[in-house]
Amino acid sequence: MPITAIPKGVELRKITAVQKRALDELITKERGSSALTTAILVGIPSIIAGSAVLAYVFKEEAQEWYADKKGEIIEAIKVVAEQTGGGIVEIVLDAGNKIFRNNPTTPEQYGGSTLNRCTRWAVDATENLARTQKGDLTETEIVRAAMNLLYIAKNMKIEGCSRPSAISQDQWNEA
User: One digit per residue, pLDDT tens: the chain, 175 residues?
Assistant: First the structure.
């Protein structure tokens, strides 16, 4: 039987070969994780400090480069924002359609008549258009109205409804 030192006060004991392998694996794992922890604790501050030193040393060059590229950077940010915004709208609408039951806000009984779902969606679109044409909406409300119109058009397409006059052909194609 091998004799080995068991950490915790370092006492010597006789252990079996299976226990020795298990202990060796445990010590190897502990050393590996502590090496990773040490690398993180030392590496990240070193990278930050090195970046700060480089930024200070080359600040004039960086300012000149930024002045030359400012227009290109702003255009790139605009493109990314537009593409991301469109993607986010799609994600929100699709998630909303999957989570919530898609029903028109116009009730089934409206003005003394019973309306079918396509007509109810068309009334929703018309009311949405009337709100936006009023011209007294904030930017946030305009975005909400545009998303709502896209939501209505998508649901109308899913249900096989025809395009109402309140939704332009371009908006219908986009949905």
Answer: 555 555 566 566 677 888 778 777 777 776 655 556 666 767 777 788 877 787 778 878 877 877 777 777 777 766 666 666 656 666 666 666 555 557 788 888 877 888 888 888 888 888 888 888 888 888 888 888 888 888 888 888 888 999 888 888 888 888 7
CA 125, CA 164: separation in Å to the nearest integer? 8
Tokens, residue 67: 């002045």
Please tell me the pTM assigned to this model.
Answer: 0.44
For 131, other C-beta atoms within 10 Å of its C-beta total 16
Question: Which residues fall within 8 angstroms of residue 124, CB to CB, at 6 or more apart?
Answer: 104, 105, 106, 152
SS3 content of the chain, % helix, strand, coil (to 5): 70, 5, 20
Q: What whole-number distance in Å separates Cα of residue 65 and Cα of residue 48?
A: 22
Name which of 91, 88, 159 is nearest 119 in CA terms: 159
Between CA 8 and CA 170 the distance in angstroms is: 74
Contact 159, 117 (CB under 8 A): yes
For the chain, what is the radius of gyration of the CA atoms? 32
